[in-house]
Design brief:
By secondary structure, the chain is mostly helical. The chain has one domain. 75% of the residues lie in helices and 0% in strands. The protein is rod-shaped, with a radius of gyration of 27 Å.
């Protein structure tokens, strides 16, 4: 289930909870809804509201930090791809095959991760694309420098190739969700309880239903923001492909 569906479902739960609170007076005996009871409900609601606000704020902060970190990692990845191509270009014709592998991998990465608007939730290409990067590493390792300058360039290219392999797996590992479903479930339970208490203490007229609808949409949109930031390669807020596109534009045409 995607972030939009979950956020809509949560907004519906919030609205139903508020409406339930508004209608509790019909089935709860009057002696259970005294002024003292309302005071206790307000105190409990205040405590839950503080807890829910803290957790919601922490989730948004954690998701935004993770999103920004992954975005920076993608830019660094694109920069290393470009730098590897530049080093191999300086090496000369002996590195032409390796340069072609770099170009083919970059094009495949762009296609696999960003070609479809709602494609992969992770920065995970198919196995064939991973094999292209492995072949690039092998091609760099097979370089036979003819002089000191080429030896230096070959060493730099090897360092970059190893770095790219490492960064690829780090990006795949970091793409896993950092927001646990259990935390979301507990937060939704707290918020639903808060909305029920709001309904118990609210006057009974149509305006309250409108207010609860607006509040429910607000809660749903906050959860949507968390879930989207927590899926950096999926959905409408996915990380931009521009760094990879710029890297590819400086390389050999793919598949040549």
């Amino acid at each position: 289930m995607d972030g939009l569906a979950i956020s809509v479902a949560v907004a519906a739960v919030m609205f139903v909870s508020g409406a339930l609170g508004l209608n509790l007076h019909r089935c709860v005996p009057a002696r259970h809804l005294t002024k003292e009871s309302h005071d206790v409900i307000r105190l409990g609601t205040g405590m839950l509201s503080v807890l829910a606000s803290l957790v919601l704020g922490l989730l948004i902060t954690a998701a935004k930090t993770s999103f920004d970190s992954t975005s920076a990692a993608v830019r660094a990845y694109a920069a290393d791809l470009t730098l590897l191509d530049d080093v191999l270009r300086d090496y000369g014709d002996g590195a032409l095959a390796a340069r072609q592998q770099v170009s083919d991998y970059t094009a495949r990465l762009l296609s696999d991760v960003w070609a479809n608007r709602y494609g992969h939730p992770y920065m995970v290409e198919n196995r064939a694309a991973g094999d292209i990067l492995e072949h690039t590493f092998q091609a760099v390792r097979a370089l036979t420098p003819a002089n000191h300058q080429q030896q230096v360039l070959a060493d730099n290219a090897m360092s970059l190739a190893v770095s790219l392999l490492r960064q690829r797996w780090l990006l795949i590992a970091h793409a896993d969700t950092s927001v646990q479903p259990l935390v979301i479930g507990i937060l939704v339970f707290w918020l639903a309880a808060i909305f029920v208490s709001f309904g118990i203490n609210a006057p009974r007229h149509a305006t309250m239903h409108v207010v609860f609808l607006i509040l429910a949409v607000g809660i749903g949109s906050a959860l949507f923001l968390i879930l989207e930031l927590n899926s950096p390669f999926d959905g409408p807020m996915r990380i931009s492909s521009q760094p990879i596109q710029m890297a590819l534009s400086h390389m050999l045409p793919p598949g040549r």
